[in-house]
Amino acid sequence: MTTVLDVQGVRHRYGGTVALDGVDLRVGAGECVALLGPNGAGKTTLVNLVVGLLARQAGTIAIVGGDPRAAASRRELGVVQQSLGFPTTLKVRELVVGAAVRAGRPRSAAGPVLAELGLAELAGRRAVKLSGGQRQRLQLAMALVGDPALLVLDEPTVGLDVAARRSFWGIVAARCARGVGVLVTTHLIEESAGVADRVVVVDKGRVLASGTPDELVAVLPDRTIVATSSLEDSVLAGVPGVLSMTREGRWVRLRTREPEAVLRVLLAADPGLGDLRVEQAGLEEAVVSIGAGV
Amino acid sequence: MSASGVVGRPVGRERGPVGLGRVFVVELVDDLRGIVREPTALFFSIVMPVGFFVLFVSMFGRQNSGMLATFGTFGVLAVTLMNPGMGVAKDRERGWLRAKQVSAVPVWVTLAAKVAASFPYAVGVLVAMAAAAAATGSLSATPWQMARLVVVLLLGAFPFALLGLAVGFRASTNAAAAILNALLMPSAIFSGLWMPLAFLPAFFSHVAPFLPPYHLAQLALAQLQPGDGVLGHALVLVAMTVVSAGLAGLSYRSARP
């Protein structure tokens, strides 16, 4: 796979405070990588280094093989910020045309992107009059009109409703499928599980874990058996393999690492067993257990 | 993902360099659209200095034909010092400057467009003042002299625009307005831009040569009436350009992303 972003051994400090303490990160063409971590984890510092707003102190960063601060690399880069205040006097089409020209593309590149992102009907409207979801789509249009190899999205869906989020991620996924590499920072863990091919968990300036959402969840062997039961609590808690037992209304919740063995015992011993399901920990629990209190 | 060593752009996507001239035109047109679509700023930038000009020229204009030059200097400085600096402060606050900084275009293109976009205001001020002077019967400048006055003031305003940018990179929009006004007003008065120095206490004439606006006003005056040598005044402005370019550069570099 072609690498569009390669971060190796990056350290960064502000005065005496260490923000990044040796971070490695790679984004391939057509890959969507979510950077997950609590506030102060170092996400913003890393993003500012990648987009060239901060000068590198130690380590290497390459966008399509080039330095992030070189003009040639920046042309491979599209950025969506968390909240961008557009100039009050400019219209949607003018902003996208401006972005096209700044990326060295013809003015005519704006039309197809406006259409693709469902902004064609809003093209004559001033950007400041748009809804939150439309504004983020406009930012995405401005990023995509440059035909970037790498898209950096910094908390792009904060404050958007479900429909706006879904539409935003739909567009990102479509570009990803066409070979654009995506790096997205987010707090929204379950959302990132839906879009990301790979999740990188950072905290205190270090990468704590990296893998597909399924791989991260798999680090948690715990399962929870939920059911209604006619057995006494003490009996349930005594079944071999049950780590702990709680009761929630009609249901009991049994935590275990050997769900099959426990279920065999329960099915044999409990004629009143019903409403049965086995739960796996979600990505949120996995991330918390990895150590990043997102 | 396998850690294959392939680094590079997917094939078939190479392109030529970004045309900085095209970008400058887009940025300038965007800034000018701002003037046309929100004309209140234009109105106040012109009405305020022109109003004062009319007041002062009706009091002193008959004895002093150079007031178009000195008050014109004030009018031009009021827009070229304030507009680019406040524009950049506003863009910084709303994150819009950041959007430009992460683009492939050097940020100076944006800044140059902002300075150029203040020129229509400056020309508007001068034209309105000339019209007011004509209406009050105190206009003695020929069209050729007026043209030279406009060119000299626009060129001479450059170091002041840089100073405005230096403030705009660090201060909030409101603070930038306050700081730039605090620089402009006293230095305008002490440089004799409002009241001719001849009508002010001698103390003012001693202070004025230490203030850059005084030297710009002298260059402007030299376009309307025979004066002493212009070289010294021009050198002061060149020196100020170097200093304020340095300040703007430092200020830009220390601005937080």
Automatic annotation (TrEMBL), chain A:
It is found in: Cell membrane. It is a peripheral membrane protein. This is ABC-2 type transport system ATP-binding protein. The keyword Transport applies. One of its GO terms (cellular component) is plasma membrane. InterPro entries: AAA+_ATPase, ABC_transporter-like_ATP-bd, ABC_transporter-like_CS, ABC_transporter_ATP-binding, P-loop_NTPase. GO terms for biological process: response to antibiotic. CDD domains: ABC_DR_subfamily_A (cd03230). Residues 5-229 form the ABC transporter domain. Pfam families: ABC_tran. The keyword Nucleotide-binding applies. It comes from Umezawaea tangerina. One of its GO terms (molecular function) is ATP hydrolysis activity. Keywords: Antibiotic resistance, ATP-binding, Nucleotide-binding, Transport.
TrEMBL record, chain B:
It comes from the Bacteria. Its main location: membrane. The chain crosses the membrane at residues 41-61, 67-86, 107-134, 146-167, 179-204, 230-252. One of its GO terms (biological process) is response to antibiotic. It is a multi-pass membrane protein. Keywords: Antibiotic resistance, Membrane, Transmembrane, Transmembrane helix. InterPro entries: ABC2_TM, ABC_2_transport, Nod_factor_ABC_transporter. Residues 32-219 form the ABC-2 type transporter transmembrane domain. It is found in: Membrane. The keyword Transmembrane helix applies. It holds the Pfam family ABC2_membrane. GO terms for cellular component: ATP-binding cassette (ABC) transporter complex. One of its GO terms (molecular function) is ABC-type transporter activity. The keyword DNA damage does not apply. This is ABC-2 type transport system permease protein. The lineage of its organism: Bacteria, Bacillati, Actinomycetota, Actinomycetes, Pseudonocardiales.
